[in-house]
Design brief:
Elements (H helix, E strand, L loop, with lengths): L3 H12 L19 E2 L10 H18 L14 H14 L6 E4 L2 H14 L7 E5 L4 H14 L2 E5 L9 H7 L4 E7 L11 H10 L3 E5 L18 E4 L13 E5 L43 H17 L1 H23 L5 E2 L11 E5 L3 H10 L2 E2 L1 E3 L3 E5 L7 H15 L1
Parallel strand pairs: 1-11, 3-4, 3-5, 5-6, 6-7
Antiparallel strand pairs: 2-8, 7-8, 9-10, 10-13, 12-13
Helix pairs in contact: 1-11, 2-8, 3-8, 4-5, 9-11, 10-11
Bound molecules: pyridoxal-5'-phosphate.
Pyridoxal-5'-phosphate (PLP) binds next to helix 4 and helix 5.
Length: 410
């Protein structure tokens, strides 16, 4: 007899209006994958990326060569802003001219945080951050605080949830220069209240920089309407840009004349091909670019973002909520009785696109799952993180993987 939850998963897959998008992704080789639950770490490749990469090699790169930068109807020189606008339109709720693609998230975060700190008025010498933010974010801000003599104000975030507006209100004040937070916490999936927190930071006279790595492409947002100052995000998670795909940075138009990022490269200079003495920033968001744009890396990003644009991020969010709700229900029925603990919010309004489950022996369980072709992520010390990228994850992937976890717990 088929389990009631397995039957439900099959019905949910049949009724899923986004199910057909899976056909637009490159399938794994036979026998290499039973269920993929890590689309929030590395999204799957689109078929469009596969063909566009081959096309780049033969056409624009192979035949046009150096002319690709400047000639034709889609010159590479414009790709950082164009791809940024595409992400802004599909995912960020942001108007054109405020987003570029360049660097890694780490480097982009450094550039924006340094720009904000350097522009802070005298007396504002504190950066607010939280203990549970992604490691690279913490390390970058620790480095900037040493470089610039700024103090770090640490918020102790609850690892099962995340930073609340009240916690922010309690620490910001006349010494705050910058607040840096993740929109969705990488471990718990806590979805921070971006509009409320942004307002609290502004009322204290400071700027806010949001890290969107775990929300872009899966949680809708309105950066312009909510008055966000700065944001960064990666393109290889829910945007399916591929390993090491370049990051994006957002600078609200009102700040573009005042903030100056610290890595003055020729590609962000006005008239780069004049090779003139002295750095003069290009106008607008372009000055966020430093060196030669990563064109090869942007090819799959464009394909991935276009896919999100076609599916619509609101519809993606709807399926994402249904997937995480269902995963929690299966956890409650099958795993909680065996001592597994949910380390993610139960309130869907405060939860992003993944969940984390904990038990003291999960490091070994996770290794066994990988051997069986079920691929979640492990987060030390005892968390299995289940990423449910809506365009590539089926409800039956949830039951398949949880059945295997249940079996391994005995
Ligand atoms: C994935 C992720 C990063 C990754 O940074 P890279 O420079 O691309 O390695 C940074 N911050 C957060 C919150 C992330 O989830």
């Amino acid at each position: 007899m088929i389990d009631e939850l397995v039957r439900r998963a099959m019905d949910l897959d049949l009724d899923d209006p986004l199910q057909h998008f899976l056909d637009d992704f490159v399938p794994a080789k036979q026998g290499r994958l039973a269920a993929y639950l890590d689309g929030n770490s590395l999204g799957r490749p689109t078929k469009a990326a596969q063909s566009a990469l081959a096309e780049l090699v033969t056409d624009a790169w192979g035949s046009e060569l150096i002319r690709g930068w400047t000639d034709g109807d889609d010159p590479w020189m414009q790709w950082p802003e164009q791809t940024g606008d595409l992400i802004a339109d599909a995912c960020l709720g942001a108007a054109d001219g405020q987003t570029v693609v360049a660097d890694s998230t780490t480097v982009m975060l450094y550039k924006l945080a340094r720009a904000a700190v350097d522009a802070a008025p005298d007396g504002r010498d504190e950066i607010v951050l939280d203990t549970d933010n992604f490691p690279t974010d913490r390390y970058v801000l620790e480095g900037i605080s040493r470089e610039r003599g700024f103090n770090l104000r640490w918020i102790d975030a609850d690892p099962d949830t995340g930073v609340t507006p009240d916690q922010i209100a309690a620490v910001v004040g006349e010494r705050t220069a910058l607040v840096v937070l993740s929109h969705v916490a990488y471990r718990s999936a806590w979805l921070a209240d971006m509009p409320a927190i942004t307002k609290i930071v502004h009322d204290a006279g400071a700027l806010v920089l949001w890290d969107l790595c775990h929300s872009v492409g899966v949680v809708p947002m309105q950066l312009d309407e909510w008055g966000v100052d700065l944001a960064v995000g990666c393109t290889y998670k829910y945007l399916n840009g591929g390993p090491g795909a370049p990051a994006f940075g957002y600078v609200a138009r009102r700040h573009q004349g005042n903030l100056r990022q610290p890595i003055h490269g020729w590609m962000g200079r006005a008239e780069p091909f004049e090779m003139a003495p002295g750095y003069v920033p290009a106008g607008g968001i372009r000055s966020l670019v430093s060196g030669t744009p990563p064109i090869v890396g942007m090819v799959p990003v464009r394909a991935g973002v276009q896919m999100v644009q076609r599916a619509k991020v609101e519809a993606i969010r709807e399926k994402s909520v249904a997937l995480t709700e269902f995963a929690i229900e299966v956890h409650d029925a099958w795993l909680a009785p065996l001592g597994v603990r949910l380390a993610s919010p139960r309130d869907a309004k405060r939860r992003g696109g993944h969940i984390t489950l904990c038990r003291n022996d999960f490091r070994e369980v996770y290794r066994q799952l990988w051997d069986d072709g079920v691929i979640p992520d492990f987060r030390a010390p005892d968390g299995i993180r289940i990423g449910l990228a809506p365009l590539t994850t089926r409800f039956t992937d949830v039951t398949t993987s949880m059945e295997l976890i249940r079996g391994s717990l005995g």
